[in-house]
Amino acid sequence: MRRFIVSAHVLDKLSELASYLKDELKISEEAAFAYQARFSGFIRSLSAEVDYPLCRFKRWWALGWRCAVFEKQWIIAYEVTHEGVIVREISNAAMLTE
pLDDT tens across 10-36, in order? Predict the structure, then answer.
């Protein structure tokens, strides 16, 4: 396993996601936190020695970030450095433009 860092920005977005699921979509608190836990587990799996391809979104591609997809709708952008993996951004796929 590689060293693993998640940016504060990504942690904030994960917190906001759980709140959004509970408050706006009226999903039960247990289900919202279970979804958040699955999402966080997937993000932690990026520390394994397997790398996803470079992002196809131009801005992230230019930065050399790699992208992984969670449940067909969330894109996780991360950077592989000599120190380990840095998770830089998460976004809903519908919100990204080339």
Answer: 999 998 998 999 999 999 999 999 999
Q: Which two tokens stand for residue 97?
A: 């433009």
Residue 20 has φ and ψ, to the nearest 5°, of -60, -45
pTM for the whole structure: 0.88
Closest alpha carbon to 27 in 38, 19, 15: 19
CA neighbours within 13 Å on the CB side: how many for 78? 27
* 3-state DSSP assignment of residue 1: coil
Structural domains in the chain plus CATH codes: 4-95 (3.30.2310.20)
What's the CA gap between 58 and 15, in Å, rounded? 27
Pairing of strands 74-81, 66-70: antiparallel
With b meaning 16 or more CB within 10 Å and e meaning fewer, what string describes 54-67? ebebeebbeeebbb
- Which residues lie below 8 Å from residue 59, measured CB to CB, with a gap of 6+? none
